[in-house]
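Recap from last week: sequence in, structure out.
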Amino acid sequence: MSWMLRENVVDAIAAYLRTLLPGDMRVYVARDIDPLQYPNAQVIYRSGENVDGSGLINGRRRMQIGINVESEAVPAMENGQTQVTSRRVHAICCEPVFSALARNDLHDALNDIGQQGVLFSMANIEGDAFAIIDRVFVTSFILDVIAQPCAIE
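Predicted C-alpha cells:
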C-alpha cells in the first residue's frame, strides 16, 4: 500500500485533465519546476483530513484540491484589431476544464485513469474563485475529494 496519497490524488487528476483538455492547454502538477506557459491548468493539493474525524489513521482522507486555470490578460489580436477580449480568451480556457470536472461520476472517471496507489470514492466541484495576478487571469476550481490509498501492483 502506498501512503503517498496526496501525490497520487494530484497525479490522477492531472492525468485525467491531460486526456480531455485541448493540446494548447498545459497541465502542471503543484508548480512543476518548468517555466509556466499559458494557457495552463495547475493541480495543487490544498488540505486534507481523516474522513471519520476520530484522529485514527485509516487511510480514507477528505481533501481539497485546487485546479487553477491561468491565461494571460492579453486580448487576441489580428491586424492590430482586437478579435477576442482577454476576458473571453480566459473563459474559453476555463470551459473545457469546468466541463471535465462538472460530472456526477467524476470519482469513477478518475478511477478509470488507472493511477496506482489511489481509489476515489467521491469527487465534486465545491466552489470557484477568480483573481487577476500580474496580468494573468486565474480561475480556481476547488474539488472536494474522498480518496484512500490502495495496493500498487
